[in-house]
Design brief:
With 829 residues, this protein is an alpha+beta fold. The protein has four domains: 360 residues, Aminopeptidase; 107 residues, no CATH class; 94 residues, no CATH class; 229 residues, 3-Layer(aba) Sandwich (Rossmann fold). The chain is built from 23 helices and 35 strands. Helix 6 links the parallel strand 3 and strand 4. Helix 17 runs antiparallel to helix 18. The N and C termini lie far apart (95 Å).
């Protein structure tokens, strides 16, 4: 027996040596040592392809998508030869263990570890580390792979990474300069952190607005790993952060998930202590907001963790930090490689327990709410279903009847009468805990000092009435309605509702086809007795005499967006305005400009850019703030100011130029922090709300208590109920109540000389999320959305950013209304 063991040991050693000889190290393949320069994305892909070709029995490289800039997205699946032969069986066994697919799991004892690198493009050391980690796993740590499958995504954000790497490689000094003030340590706008559309992909896991997230979720849900690590970088003076995470933990996180985080952290500490490397744990990075690369996997049963290495886009190849130490890229790579390997080691040693506890997570019997019933506009229901499909969450349609529970519109107990069009999403499914996190009326916060927004529930985000029921509501297979329209060449025109973003896409498409479209500012009842609310679109044959095949164009475009078009025989209405009334206005095709560059928030600009190109599909011209003083604004009639600080851009001369343009008929749409450019300024009625200071003198608050005391003045992404003037064009398609996601505590007074289209009244009503007591007081009688007329033009104030991370679907129509409907009187021939 001993002799046989020695023979097996020799065979194993020989195979390890052979594998090491076949695979080039990163240095041999790239031609430089890791850390000597930043690798471009294609070089990283080429190295992973090389390893997969040289070790096909241990590595499977899978392309799972492409970025907006057409860079490929890959994962490498790494394990022992036996496991790689049986990958499909291991994968299916794991999904059976979670209950995602039917059948009994084959006594799972294989750990599945997913390592994700470089979600933020300028946190670039991690992709370099991914190559070293892959090489070491195959040449030095094969023993761990016997019972572990390691999935490596070497670069989640290739577009952002190459934006950073290309800039740095062309900018840096040779040799590199460690001076913090050197140009190579100061990225230009917008930096390499975001993806092509300047989205933070680490906040997009749950919302999946970006193609990188959408394609990643497809392969992630095929595996549902037990461990997921998201590798990051932070400021140059903070050495290294690893698990366990900080409070608050979301309440669905199990004791085991907490405990194992600590176990992993202690294993990392062992290696870091041996090298004299500094680190910290249990600070800053909490596990509450569901859309991170650590929380989303955690809510899907994994041990989700963030590892943060000092460096970020500022560090370059090396930098002198504030403590007088030189932080090099080689150091950063070594640290990330160490924690990556340490994670695999701990997982291998605990593979059986990981599987056992993973299975327990998917038991959802203890959840308070068993079903969420959602009611409202069909298109909003369809939009929500599309999101649920991305996460492979099941749903159905309700039956007629009454359901009681927590009612979202009243923020109290209530009931609704269900119809067979209503959506039912129940928690008695494997992903029930994720459903709770996304739909719950109010997340339970163990600590108000959290890292991100604290409210996001999907009924408010999608503008739907909902009941959270403690009973399990039966449902039928969900169906969707397809609209069929018929053309009527004798009709004087066609009319359709204005309720949601699909209507806006329909309008935008018609305008691009040079179809003239009108909208009504008053409710209208046509000959069929059908009544249409404010904002309804009317296409009159007389407006489009020169358009050939008008009816075919309208029917085909309506089919594309599943819009219901009613052919109207006469422009003489039963009630409300006739088609020729001044209250039925022509939609003038807008010429839209939008500021970008220094001063603008790259995230806000990116969300707008993405919205116009990927959702509304309508042209917009981006103007760099550095050129604003030289721009001929007369080429445009709409100017959008994304959230940002425009003190440098809108100086006295520029502001005078802007005001003259508005008075002549231009329209400015200012979003979030951009309002500070107008608040308290001559010629505008926008002013800050004055908060009364009746609390303790700040100077007497102890040093250690200052941060927590300051929380009283903060709003950390909370949802507030607002009152809406639904007769104003800015609010067409909305009812008299809107639930707004408020991202900060800045408060503006109601407009004296304008229209307060949406506002918070005397008693601010927070329905979800954290808001400090002082901040809530300061919201009393405050503006949310408003319009101020200047001469022939308008300034539209959007205090709350409806495009924040592009997931608050119900707010997007406010922006569309601002563009197409507000103060839309003049027509340019």
């Amino acid at each position: 027996m001993q002799k046989l063991f020695k023979v097996l040991l020799v065979v194993l050693s020989f195979s390890t040596i052979t594998l090491a000889q076949n695979i080039d190290s990163p240095k041999s393949f790239l031609g430089y040592e890791l850390g000597e320069q930043f690798s471009r994305h294609h070089q990283v892909v080429d190295y992973f392809k090389h390893v997969a070709q040289q070790a096909p029995k241990n590595v499977k490289l899978i392309k799972y998508g492409e970025t907006y800039e057409r860079r490929p997205l890959y994962v490498a699946i790494v394990s022992s030869e036996e496991n790689v032969r049986n990958l499909e069986s291991i994968r299916e066994s794991n999904l059976k263990n979670a209950g995602v697919i039917a059948g009994e799991s084959n006594s799972p004892e294989t750990a599945i570890v997913w390592l994700s690198y470089n979600v933020h493009g300028n946190e670039a050391s991690s992709t370099e580390a991914s190559m070293g980690t892959l090489y070491k796993l195959l040449t030095e740590k094969q023993e761990w792979l016997k019972n572990t499958v390691v999935i490596i995504d070497p670069c989640i954000n290739p577009d952002g990474r190459d934006r950073y790497a290309n800039w740095y490689n062309e900018t840096k000094s040779t040799p590199f300069d460690i001076d913090q003030q050197a140009s190579e340590h100061n990225e230009p706008w917008p930096g390499g952190r975001p993806n092509h559309y300047l989205f933070d992909l680490n906040r997009d896991w749950a919302w999946a607005t970006q193609v990188e997230s959408q394609t990643r979720l497809k392969i992630y849900n095929k595996w549902l790993p037990h461990i997921h690590v998201d590798f990051h970088e932070q400021g140059i003076n903070e050495p290294y952060y690893f698990a366990p995470a900080a409070e608050p933990f979301h309440e669905i996180i199990s004791d085991w998930q907490r405990e194992f985080q600590t176990q992993i952290g202690k294993n990392h500490a062992k290696y870091f202590d041996a090298e004299g490397w500094l680190y910290f744990t249990r600070e800053r990075f909490d596990l509450f907001y569901p859309s991170y690369g650590d929380t989303y996997p955690t809510f899907m049963g994994a041990i989700g963790m963030t590892y943060e290495q000092a460096g970020h886009g500022m560090a370059g190849l090396a930098i002198l930090n504030d403590e007088g130490d030189v932080l090099s890229l080689k150091d950063r790579i070594a640290h990330h490689t160490t924690t990556g390997l340490s994670t695999v080691e701990v997982s291998s040693k605990n593979a059986t327990r990981l599987n056992t506890e993973f299975k327990k997570f998917f038991n959802t019997k203890g959840l308070k709410y068993k079903s969420y019933v959602l009611q409202g506009d069909d298109d909003k229901i369809e939009a929500l279903k599309s999101l649920l499909d991305k996460h492979e969450i099941t749903y159905g349609n309700a039956s007629n009847g009454k359901v009681s529970g927590f009612k979202y519109s009243t923020n109290a107990s209530g009931s609704i009468n269900m119809t067979n069009k209503d959506l039912v999403v129940s928690t008695n499914q494997p992903k029930g805990k994720m459903i709770k996190a996304l739909f719950e009326p109010e997340g339970k916060l163990s600590d108000s000092l959290t890292y991100d927004i604290t409210a996001w529930n999907l009924p408010h985000a999608y503008g739907l009435e909902a009941i959270a029921s403690t009973s399990l509501i039966s449902s039928n297979k969900s169906t969707s309605t397809t609209v069929t329209n018929s053309k009527n060449t004798k009709a004087t025109g066609y009319i359709t509702d204005w309720d949601n973003l699909k209507d806006a896409e329909f309008l935008a498409d018609l305008l691009k086809q040079n179809i003239k479209v009108r909208f009504t500012e008053k409710p209208i009842t046509v000959a069929s007795n059908n009544t249409y609310n404010r904002g309804a679109l009317i296409i009159v044959r007389g407006d489009n005499k020169k358009v050939k095949n008008l009816d075919d164009i309208l029917i085909n475009t309506a089919k594309k967006y599943n819009r219901n078009l009613e052919a109207v025989a006469s422009g003489f209405s039963k009630s409300g305005p006739d088609f020729g009334s001044p209250d039925i206005k022509l939609v003038n095709r807008p010429k839209i400009a939008m500021l970008s560059g220094n001063g603008t928030s790259s995230l806000s600009y990116g969300a707008l850019w993405h919205f116009f190109e990927q959702q509304l599909h309508f042209p917009v011209t981006s103007i760099n703030t550095d050129q604003f003083s030289r721009i001929n604004l007369d080429k445009y009639n709409v100017l959008i100011l994304p959230s940002g600080y425009y003190g440098r851009v809108l100086n006295e001369d520029a502001m005078e130029k802007l005001q003259s343009w508005v008075r002549a008929g231009g329209k400015v749409i200012a979003i979030d922090r951009a309002l500070s450019a107008f608040a308290g300024k001559k010629g505008f009625s926008l002013n800050y709300n004055n908060s009364s200071d009746d609390g303790e003198n700040d100077n007497l608050i102890p040093y250690a208590d200052r941060e927590r005391e300051y929380a009283k003045q903060m709003i950390i992404g909370a949802i507030f109920k607002t009152k809406v003037d639904d007769t104003h064009p800015l609010a067409f398609g909305y009812k008299d109540t809107y639930f707004s996601l408020k991202l900060g505590s800045t408060s503006y007074s109601l407009l004296d000389g304008g229209y307060n289209v949406a506002h918070i009244g005397d008693n601010p009503e927070k329905v979800s999320g954290f808001a400090g007591s002082d901040a809530i007081k300061n919201l009393s009688n405050s503006l949310v959305f408003g319009e101020e007329r200047l001469g022939s033009g308008s300034v539209i104030y959007m205090v709350d950013n409806t495009l924040f991370r592009s997931f608050w679907e119900n707010g997007k129509l406010f922006l569309v209304n601002a563009i197409f409907f507000v103060n839309n009187n003049a027509y340019e021939l």
